[in-house]
Each structure stands twice: as C-alpha cells, then as structure tokens.
Amino acid sequence: MKKLVCLVLALMMSLMCVSALAAEKVGVSMPTKDLQRWNQDGDYLYQKLTEAGYEVDLQFASNDVQQQLNQVTNMINNGCTVIVIAAIEGSSLGSALDLAKEKGVTVIAYDRLLMESDAVSYYATFDNYMVGTKQGTYIKEALDLDNAAGPFALEITAGDPGDNNARYFYQGAIDVLQPYIDAGKLTIKSGQIEFTDVATPTWKTEVAQTRADSILASFYADGSSIDAWLCSNDSTALGVTNALEANYDGEWPIITGQDCDISNVKNMIAGKQAMSVFKDTRTLAAQVVKMVGQILAGETVDVNDTETYDNNKIVVPSFLCEPVFADVNNYAELLLDSGYYTADQLQ
C-alpha cells in the first residue's frame, strides 16, 4: 500500500509539473508580415513553442514601432514569463523592457539586438558579421580579385540604419572588399560607400529600387557596366534587380543577398541574382525554443558568445548560429533536400 501511495503521489507531482509547464506563457513579437522571412520565423517559433507545451502569444507589428511597443507591453501585462522580440528598431522598446525587468520577465532578443537596455537577458541570432564576410568573399572570388587586372565597378546597397545587424552585415563585407577598393581594383562610380550613404530604411524593396534607379541614371546611363552590386539582403537585392531590369543594358552584375526568399531563389535560378546567404530559421527557432525551456526550468542557458554584442548598456550573452551561402550550384541541396522549400514553390 505504501508503494502504491508513493506511486500515486509521484504521478500527481508529474501531472502538476506538466500542468505548470503548459501554463507558462511565452510572447513572440515579430516586426512585420511584409517580409517572407518574418512570417516563417514567427510561424516556426509558434509551432515549436506550442509543441513544447507553452501557451504562445504571437504578434506581428506591421513595421510600426508604437504598435510593437504596445504589443510587447500587453504581453508582459497578460502574464508572459518569457518574451522573444525581433525588434523593428532596436532602441525603441525601452519602456516595455523596463516593465519586463520590473516584473521579472525574461527577454530574448531574436536576430536583431535590442539596444540601450539592461533588461535584455539573451540574444539569439546568426553570426551577422560572418553574413557580410560571406557576401564580400563571394564577390572577391567571383571576380577573382586576387588575380584579375580589373578595375571592376561595384555598387553597394546596405540595410536599415535602425537595425543593429545591418552594420554588421555591411562591415563584414567591406572588410573583405576594402583592400581592393583601396588598390583601385574595385571602383564605386557613385562614390557612395559609407554606411549612412548606402543604407536602406526599413529594408524596403521600393526604397532600394528608387536609389538604384538614381545611381543608374546618374552614373551608368553612358552604357558603363556594373560588375557587382553588394546587397545586404534579399528585399534590397530585389529592388536593385528591378532597377537593373528597367534601366540597365550592360553585362549583368553579380548581386548578393540574404535570407533565400522565394522570389530571390527564383532569380538565382534565372541568373539574375548570384547568391543569397542562407540562414535556416528552423535552426535559430529551435535554439530559441531550447533557450526558453532552459530559462523556465532554471537551467544554464546555452550561449557561445559573451563578448561581441554590446547594446550600449550591457554585453548581451548570445548564441550565434552559422550561416551558409546558397547559389545556383547548391540551392537544391540546401533548400530542397532539407525540406525548407518544395520544388513547386520555386517554379
């Protein structure tokens, strides 16, 4: 009888633990549905966190900073114990983060670092500087800059100045290409090279296209060719591609990107975009789900970088996943064989 009572008590304790786990509420704040990747990230996080037994409050903020601030504040007030935030603008959620700290809510910055706050407990992302180095290295090797005579014409389209990651992407690529710019092997006819000159607010395709149209009209209307156009992500690469298709008759340039959006993978297959850095959001989301579980269980949280990501208040413990590049030679293996896309999606 004593053994039976012990077994019953153990079972009751187990059920109580499961019930407690299921009662934990996790908030997920994504910046927008306008970009394919945020839909994928949000949906995958929701799926995996739900499968892990959590109640999930997933919100998209329509690229509206005030809306995201309100959504995160509501998540905190509605009982979320952990909140995962991909910020629209990294320094704009201060009041919500202060509230999270006051109420003991753990905050994980997702892919974009939350700035100017000591309420950020962890950061999960891909190695953003490495993303840029892969883009710069691809251009270097495709143009054979170590051996070819040149000069080659290069233009640059970077990301959103409100996104801390954009500077890492830009700097990683520039650090690879700067020696060739200094040597005159790469020339930038527009003269636009500083991050502030080449940035694209909100990563908008239309903004990138408008600027590319202006560059083409001002510096390449005489029939000059562009050899490479460094684009920090796929939405900006799409804008540049649209501009080139409308206003450029020279030899098609090498165009870089990031995220392997469907439209851009189709452009790779068609020869319009040379490469895109593949950041498998399933890998990042799975890591975040693991971190959430470790936080709620009171365990040590996995991080692999405690030095790099200073948000101007603290150095945020981070987990960096490694990106790879996809091009026409390996996209099938990376994107189709892995189940990331189906063949029908890329038709």
List the helices and strands and how they pair.
Layout: H1 2-23, E1 25-30, H2 36-51, E2 55-60, H3 65-77, E3 82-85, H4 94-102, E4 106-110, E5 122-126, H5 128-142, E6 152-157, H6 164-182, E7 186-187, H7 195-198, H8 205-219, E8 228-231, H9 234-247, E9 254-255, H10 262-269, E10 275-278, H11 281-296, E11 318-321, E12 324-327, H12 331-336
Helix pairs in contact: 2-11, 3-4, 5-6, 8-9
Question: Could you write a compact summary of the structure shown?
Answer:
This protein has helices at residues 2-23, 36-51, 65-77, 94-102, 128-142, 164-182, 195-198, 205-219, 234-247, 262-269, 281-296, 331-336; strands at residues 25-30, 55-60, 82-85, 106-110, 122-126, 152-157, 186-187, 228-231, 254-255, 275-278, 318-321, 324-327. By secondary structure, the protein is α/β, with parallel strands linked by helices. It is elongated, with a radius of gyration of 23 Å.
Question: Could you describe the 3D structure shown?
Answer:
It is a single chain. The termini are far apart. β6 (152-157), α6 (164-182) and β7 form a beta-alpha-beta unit. The chain folds into two domains: 2-120 and 280-320, Response regulator (Rossmann fold, 3-Layer(aba) Sandwich); 128-279, Response regulator (Rossmann fold), CATH 3.40.50. α2 (36-51) runs parallel beside α11, α3 packs parallel to α4 and α8 (205-219) runs parallel beside α9. The protein has helices spanning 2-23, 36-51, 65-77, 94-102, 128-142, 164-182, 195-198, 205-219, 234-247, 262-269, 281-296, 331-336; strands at 25-30, 55-60, 82-85, 106-110, 122-126, 152-157, 186-187, 228-231, 254-255, 275-278, 318-321, 324-327. It contains twelve helices and twelve strands. The protein is α/β, with parallel strands linked by helices and 347 residues long. It is elongated.
